[in-house]
Design brief:
Elements (H helix, E strand, L loop, with lengths): L5 E3 L14 E8 L4 H13 L3 E7 L6 E7 L3 H10 L4 E3 L2
Antiparallel strand pairs: 1-3, 2-4, 2-5, 3-4
């Protein structure tokens, strides 16, 4: 099913050695409301060495950003998104 409100933006990175933290899934509430907003955060999220894949659900009322990463603090993802000019806070 192709849902135009769900933006898949995953990537695969080579394994990062030495972190020992394992994989984690982080979920954030954002104000990324359209594909232009997503295009603005894509470069930084794709280039981060610990982020393995990510996607944004534009259909969800909280515009959920889901990040699969290796040993990355939620605050770092929040900083990446906020540096691009958008709101981002981890949902716990």
């Amino acid at each position: 099913m192709n849902n135009s409100n769900f933006h898949e933006a995953s990537r695969v990175s080579p394994p990062v050695g030495g972190s020992g933290g394992g994989m984690q899934i982080l979920v954030f509430k954002t104000n990324l409301t359209n594909t232009s907003h997503i295009k603005n955060v894509r470069p930084a999220l794709n280039l981060h060495p610990y982020i393995k894949e990510w996607n944004v659900d534009l259909h969800d009322c909280d515009k959920i950003l889901r990040v699969v990463a290796e040993n990355i603090p939620a605050a770092e993802v929040e900083s990446i998104v906020s540096t691009a000019g958008y709101f981002c806070i981890e949902l716990k």
